[in-house]
Known about the structure:
Nuclear Transport Factor 2, Chain: A; 27% strand; alpha+beta; 8 strands; three-stranded antiparallel sheet
Amino acid sequence: MKLLSISGVTMLFSILAPVNSMAIVSDAQFLPVPHHTQPFSYLCQNRRRHNKSTLENKARIGKQGLDDNRFFNGYPAYFDEFNYNINGDKWLYPIDDNHVDFVVFTRDAHVTGVVFRVPLDNGRYSYHPCQLEF
């Protein structure tokens, strides 16, 4: 029986690692949703923390845009990048003018989550969930 050399193991891992990563990402795991009666905040990778009152205010502004059928710079925008542990359509609204961090909310303005976006080389964006803190 022939043993794999270090370079053989490295090559095998480099082939299998992307497959394993894709399997993890494609699993339908639900992101937690804060309960509206409890205090919470979100911490994003850029070290920006967003508190409950700010997020609820932005969700209400986004909901008002939906109710009035008014969209400013494309927001609120339909958002289905992640599975959240709550029913209904999710919408995206910028938290501040830099359009990096966004509140995710339902049609009734329930805060569902927070995401930050990263520009890609092709002019599009990649969204990443921020960490819910209680």
